[in-house]
Amino acid sequence: MAQFFSRIPSCNVYDDTLFVAMRNGIVYYPLKENNAEWKTYACSGMRIQSFVKSGAKLLAIYQSETGFELLRSSDYGRTFVDITPEDGARSDFLSYSIYQMPNNLEHVFLVYPPNDVNAFQNNRMKESLDMGENWTAAENAATQDGFFAVAPYNSDHIIVYGLTPYVNCICPYILETTDNFNTLTQVPFEIPEQPFSFYSLSYCSTNTQKLLAASNQGLFKSTDGGCTWQKNSGLSDLNWSDRSMLLYEPNHSQLVFVGRNDESHSGDYSWDIHYSKDSGETWQLLFASESTTDVLILGMVLYDDHLIVVGSDLNVNSILGIYRIPINQVSSVSTIKQENDVKGIDSYNLQGQRLSTLPQKGIYIQNGRKIVVK
Questions:
Q1: What is the value of pTM for the model shown?
Q2: Which of 3, 44, 53 has its CA nearest to residue 24?
Q3: What is the Cα–Cα distance from 106 to 101, expressed in whole angstroms?
Q4: Domain holding 78: CATH number?
Q5: Cβ contacts of residue 86 below 8 Å, gap of 6+?
Q6: Domain limits for position 156
Q7: Model confidence over 249-266: pLDDT tens digits?
Q8: What is the mean pLDDT of residues 311-329?
Q9: Continuous segment of H or E residues that includes residue 347
């Protein structure tokens, strides 16, 4: 499993099935079935920011009318219990984040804003070894400011990425622990350019000193665990947004993909995916959308020696495409098409008419359920 984070909804593979967090629930797609269809898994009609699962257990970050909440299910998402921390802020603009250890799916971390202090500067972290049944505070980590993401290599090496206010802008910093947060060491970090903010980080699974970052200033690389950064000149002419994502291929230590969503000044959207076979030294275009597409890249995952790309509508209400690219053919792919067997989740209005797009407000029927969007 490649290690990365990005500021987009979750897109994960569990047991040969692709799960995607949407603004109207969690949907799934069996990757090894012929004529597969997208179906609703859980949280139908609920705006899910991110999630993790292990067997029948599910943890989901839900954006309700009153703010973000942490929900837990032990029956495949049929029923949920609100387990938002008592000291957690319920705010519609202060987000929660949840992360899962790749080699132990029951081991998860929760990063959340507390309700008693300036949450942006003093986020807290909790850890669970049983998929959210019991939580303990990561005390040493909680003394730091502005945690944004946790990127676990394995149970012995965890990287934490944070944000902290500095001279009227937001500066990132990187911490690491090799003893499960008994000690937490700050990585000396030189800010490349001001103002600077990471959109996505990716760590090479075979070399923990090798990192790539997509930011508001472009692509950067580090070969010393994040202590120093050099700007990547290969894609310097492109615009970067907070929907950019990076992904190292764990079985090919030099192969990395970057997906980019871009909105032009005229309001048109476009997206593209580039790849590098030398850890970001040089880049090649894999494929790109038309300049006026209504599709954005919702997520990228690696599965069964393929790069899987999921596309959605601009409001992240419905899946509009899935693409599979063989890893060993990235240099020779000339045309990449949406899978012919992909079928969307049928949605209807109250009169029984099939909807081509989902309403931003109102009531509609999906998978036999009535969905209310406020």
A1: 0.80
A2: 44
A3: 8
A4: 2.130.10.10
A5: none
A6: 47-187
A7: 877 778 888 888 776 655
A8: 76
A9: strand 347-348
